[in-house]
Amino acid sequence: MVSMLSRRQDAPQTRGEHSRRVVMCVATIVVAASVGAAGGPSASQEQQFLSHVRRLTFEGRRAGEGYFSPDGGRMVFQSERHQGNPFYQIYQLDLTTGETSRLSPGQGKTTCAFFRPLSGDVLFSSTHHDPRSQELQAEELAFRESGQERRYAWDYDPQMDIYVLSDAGELTRLTRVEGYDAEASYSPDGAWIVFSSTRDAYDRQLSDDERRRLEMDPSFFGEIYTMRADGSEQRRLTDVTGYDGGPFFSPDGSRIVWRRFDADGLIADVWTMKPDGSDQQQITDFGAMSWAPYPHPSGDYIFFASNKLGFDNFELYIVDTAGEREPVRITSTDGFDGLPVPSPDGTKLSWTSTRGSEHGQIYLARWDHAAARGALEAAAPRRSRPNGDTR
Q1: Which end of the chain is least crowded, N or C, by CB within 10 Å?
Q2: What contacts 207, CB < 8 A, 6 or more positions away?
Q3: Which residues, in sequence order, are CB contacts of 169 under 8 Å at separation 6+?
């Protein structure tokens, strides 16, 4: 996901940010570990919502985007740890035993894993089918071994396609068009998939300006799509200038939450819409990069990350589902905090952080839902409705 900042300068990809601006997925993506605490909760206030904080991942250069299984007993995540491959691969962690196993083929790049409800299937995106995979891996390894450095950035590989791994170990390819197809997740009943894609930049004649834009910033062409769980009935939902990505269904399946960048790629906000793409509503208006939204299982509020307090300082926030009150800040520990994901029962929170590590790793804590609701009820009403709100 992304350098004006780089979504993952050194935190993992957060579902879609871009090489010029921040944001995974992403990517999964991001940020310097420096912090400027400009107001907001103190460390003791962070403990109002989070307790028993512990680090879940240690192996590999970086890890992130941890998503729970439907029963809450396992987690899928992406990590740079597979020998001979410098790029992310998908892993599964047993939260009881600590046993970890690789799910992806081990070749190419992967991102954005997600469990299918009511089954053991796992969704993720991969480029392992790309004939150049081994060559690209060798080039990246050689670059790293040379001692050279560059900002961490997601490249929106147009060979990235969506796959599903069945409980029986069968891998099925769901998308086959040129363009970055990723940031995918299931509806609560497991019947539908929502995802982000840049395919529009590859299936039509581009203007000279669009070609320059594609070369500099391919994420600009990212839009939200849905398809059935078998890959059929692929349909585009958004058609607005700027990068749309990181979509998830609400707990009852009645809406989709995602983040939308402005045309310059500097400002992002949380939005929601109906699964048919209608009734698009802007939920946040921070004038900052607010991304990685994920709904709490109660449906009462949405988690997200934002650099409201400083360009390199990403913190976790919650906002009521309707966006009627000011968001509430959750974290205040130095470093990058992003990609928040609650457990299915809503009692735990997983997120990606650089606290205690040079690169991003996954953390887990107990989550106080009652305290979150109380804080949102006490929050000030939104001073002004977000631009574009039609309510």
Answers
A1: C
A2: none
A3: none
What average pLDDT is seen over the chain? 88
Q: Name, in order, each residue with C-beta under 8 angstroms of 145's C-beta and a sequence gap of 6 or more.
A: none
- What does the alpha-carbon distance between residue 232 and residue 253 come to, in Å, rounded to a whole number? 19
Nearest in space to 301 (alpha carbons), one of 237, 367, 230, 220: 367
At 5 the pLDDT is 32
Question: Between 382 and 347, whose confidence is greater?
Answer: 347
Rounded Cα distance, 53 and 6, in Å:
26
DSSP 3-state assignment of 199?
A: helix
pLDDT at 42: 54
Name every residue whose Cβ is closer than 8 Å to that of residue 80 and which is 6 or more positions away in sequence. 60, 61, 62, 63, 86, 87, 88, 89
Runs of H (alpha helix) within 70-207: 133-145
What is the SS3 assignment for 96-118?
CCCCEEECCCCCCCEEEEEECCC
Query: What one-character DSSP code corresponds to residue 190?
Result: S
pLDDT confidence band for 44 (50 / 70 / 90): low
Q: Which residue has the tokens 């982000």?
A: 196
CATH 2.120.10.30 fits 43-378, yes or no: yes
pLDDT tier for residue 3 given thresholds of 50, 70 and 90: very low
> Cα–chain-centroid distance for residue 130?
23
Residues 95-115 have pLDDT tens digits of 999 999 999 999 999 999 999
| Averaged pLDDT, 144-155 | 81
Instruction: Characterize the bridge pairing of strands 281-282 and 110-115.
Output: unpaired
Termini Cα distance of the chain: 31
- The pLDDT of residue 87 is 96
Angstrom distance (rounded) from CA 289 to CA 371: 25
Separation of alpha carbons 299 and 141, rounded Å: 44
- Whole-angstrom Cα distance, residue 93 to residue 273? 32
Edge to edge, what strands does the sheet with 348-353 contain? Answer: 50-55, 361-367, 348-353, 337-342
